[in-house]
Write a structure and sequence with these properties.
five-stranded antiparallel beta sheet, 517 residues
């Protein structure tokens, strides 16, 4: 067998094109064609006819950022390195080498173009016949925020920090009167070190006689105070941080927010651990696996996310056809969502709590008298307990604009399982918050056809989530705040759709070649 010579350092007499080193069917060509279709006139106008060094093409920056997301790279530093070392990125950048600062600023300034790129992938998939819109599955997942769970603050702490800073500002004014325009090092050092901060804190605590133990300042609050007293300019920065955190605390019933990302919220992950996260919602086409819509929300629940998903789909590709079926899990089973589906004549499949537990096969056998084991007769409107006793409808009352229906009977007092079921000398009351629409949906979900249709949901939404978390290794946001995490989400969704379209085209070409041979 012959041995090839080692040609490292070989000089070429004829320059070669970068594309000579890239396979003909590489996904980067699709990325380049996709970005070429987007409109950059408005954003380019911002940089035309201005002084200074010429700015990089926004179109070029979007190409390398999208390509990086397809490769599972979201760090601006790593993208800048790829533009210097990787031939694919050299081709997409036209041999330009933007630094990571430029790439970071681009993601912030051109968030609209990144969102347009995502919508373009949806329209391309529909145009080539991938998106059928026969069945759309909607679901959400928690993605960890770039926020420290140790760097917390609450309303009482913000109030205390403001008081301490106010004391410090008053002290500074008194010092100005005494020392005038003299150098800062002539101020006694005990007035500028950490002891000064603690001394003022102790005075505030003594004055605030109603202060409780749980309202004591955390280490993160002390760090803020030290930052504020480091130099006069830092006080304004600290006050802005406090204003930001205070605004977010007003929006949420949660008692604390993270100072690193006040817009994130406490959410329970799949390991039953509480951490600062965002709720990422997606709507996926069953036939193609294309993400049709995606949003980022601070709401830990899915109750209010069905309507925004459907509206975003229609904003991107137009009104849904009459044959479209939409499935979602029990978290979306609310009166508002059911009314929306009814008013817009959308064929929805959403199980109630009992049906969702049965579908997941997660009911507990060691709790035979759980509410999920009480069967509801929808036609005659009564419940049957596990001991085959009838619980008829008794009354309806209103709670927070929701009508609650109660079912119970007096046989509980004679039941041998009374203590196990409800407790001694008590009646078991089943409360149903559903109205006519919820009962109609529950009856519908009992049919075999509905169960088969709903079974499509899991395989549809788990596919993109699996690709995002396992293949792209994307389990935590890199940026902070809803605007920037939304940009990250758009890049993730765009990369998923691009891969799906590219793979579909490759399969079609492969089949076509096989037929020709």
């Amino acid at each position: 067998m012959a041995l090839r010579e080692d040609c490292i350092g070989q000089t070429w007499l004829v320059p070669r094109r970068v594309t000579d080193f890239i396979p003909e069917n590489h996904i980067c060509y699709f990325v380049a064609n996709l970005v070429e279709e987007l409109d950059f006139k408005k954003i380019d106008q911002k940089y035309r006819h201005t002084k200074g060094k010429a700015a990089y093409s926004r179109r070029m920056l979007l190409r390398i950022v999208i390509m990086a997301s397809v490769d599972g790279v979201f760090s601006s530093r790593r993208i800048a390195r790829l533009a210097e070392e990787n031939v694919v990125y050299m081709y997409l950048s036209g041999m330009d080498k933007p630094d990571f600062h430029t790439i970071c600023r681009f993601k912030i300034e051109c968030a609209e173009q990144i969102e347009d790129a995502f919508k373009m992938t949806v329209n391309v998939a529909k145009k080539i016949g991938m998106v059928q819109l026969n069945h759309i599955a909607i679901d959400g997942t928690k993605i960890k925020a770039n926020a420290s769970s140790a760097n917390l603050v609450n309303k009482e702490e913000i109030k205390t920090i403001r008081e301490i800073l106010k004391k410090g500002i008053e002290t500074d004014k008194e010092e100005d009167k005494i020392y005038g325009d003299k150098r800062g090092d002539e101020v006694p050092p005990e007035l500028t070190n950490r002891e000064k901060v603690h001394e003022i804190i102790q005075k505030v605590r003594k004055e605030n006689k109603d202060a409780k133990n749980e309202n004591k300042l955390r280490k993160s609050s002390f760090k803020l105070l030290e930052q504020a007293y480091a130099c006069p300019e830092q006080k304004d920065i600290v006050l802005k941080k406090l204003d930001y955190a205070e605004r977010e605390l007003e929006k949420t019933p949660q008692e604390t927010v993270s100072l690193t990302d006040p817009e994130s919220r406490w959410m329970k992950n799949k390991k039953n651990l509480w951490e600062f996260s965002y709720n990422m919602q997606i709507a996926v086409d069953y036939d193609s696996g294309i993400i049709l819509a995606s949003t980022i929300t601070q709401d830990p629940t899915d109750h209010h996310q069905l309507i925004p998903q459907i509206e975003e789909i229609e904003e991107t590709i137009g009104t849904l056809p009459h044959y479209t079926k939409i499935s979602a899990d029990n978290g979306y089973f609310t009166q508002d969502n059911l009314e929306y589906l009814e008013e817009n004549k959308i064929n929805g499949y959403i199980p109630n709590r009992k049906q969702a537990h049965e579908a997941k096969k997660s009911w507990k056998k060691d709790k035979p008298f759980s509410k999920h084991n009480f069967k509801h007769n929808y036609n005659e409107d009564f419940y049957i307990c596990p001991n085959n006793k009838k619980l008829p409808y008794q009354k309806t009352y209103k709670y927070k604009d929701i009508y609650m229906h109660q079912y119970y009977c007096n046989d509980c007092l004679k039941c041998p399982d009374q203590i196990t079921c409800v407790g001694k000398n008590r009646l078991r009351v089943i409360t149903d918050y559903g109205g006519v629409l919820s009962k109609r949906m529950s009856l519908k979900m009992e049919t075999p056809e509905a169960k088969l249709e709903f079974a499509k949901r899991k395989e549809t939404v788990e596919w993109p989530f699996g690709n995002i978390k396992e293949n792209l290794k994307y389990t935590e946001f890199l940026t902070r705040g809803i605007p920037q995490t939304t940009t990250e989400k758009n890049l993730i969704s765009t990369s998923h759709n691009i891969k799906r379209i590219h793979n579909e085209n490759k399969n079609k070409i492969k089949i076509k070649n096989q037929l020709n041979t």
